[in-house]
Amino acid sequence: MTNTHAGRDLDTSRPHSARMYDYYLGGKDHFSVDKKAAATVAELFPGVFACAGENRKFMHRATRILAKEHGIRQWLDIGTGIPTEPNLHQVAQSVAPDARVVYADNDPLVLKYAERLMRSTPQGRTAYVEADATDPKSLLAAVEAAEVLDFDKPIALSLNALMHFVIDEMDPYGIVARYLDAVPSGSVLALSQVTSDYAPDAWAKVVDLYVKSGTPAQTRSKEEVVRFFDGLDLMEPGIVLAHRWRRSADEAATAAEEPTDAEVSMLVGVGIKP
Question: How far lies 212's CA from each of 14, 97, 114, 125, 199, in Å?
């Protein structure tokens, strides 16, 4: 899981969800306190590594498919988190070198690594804006000020592993709706969200751990995730677990081991705005 609700100063005395997510993905941008907390999560829910990995693979697949099959050339990645290569713009520009991507996060930890997000192809453009995902008006204003995206043309909104940190008291559905209202017809919502549908007891303990460490968190059922896509045309196969969304035959054939549904526990979907 990644988080966009950190304080303004880097705090290495307590675990940070973005650094924990980096640990789950096998990265190196974390500290011993994060590793310890992540290990505790793994004891409660050993599938967390598969969950994080399959979420990342979904983002890669969705980005490639949107660029290749739907002609999308613009992305707004909200709640970016610590960069892990290949980053979204690298995937998009591998298909469409002229793709434009704006990353948005309000975490000083992400800002520290933002230069990794700026390495665009000569034909395309990337930018990073510091803004809070829970404040669409300010975030969108910052994105427009960057003058990278054209809001008269379709934009893919990428909300990966973000909404489980936007609890009900923050008006999650209203937040997503306001982002969708700002983009034109043909735009896309690509979203992933942790669910406890398959391992409720384990996820209850994991959420409790995050909350006690100061990070708001909430799992959602499939029905609750479907609500994010109200009014959109869902791409096949609809709202499914991450490892079941448009995985290629080659990817399935080369997988070392098929994760279980409970291990993945990450619902994903891609919807197109009519």
Answer: 11, 44, 28, 40, 20
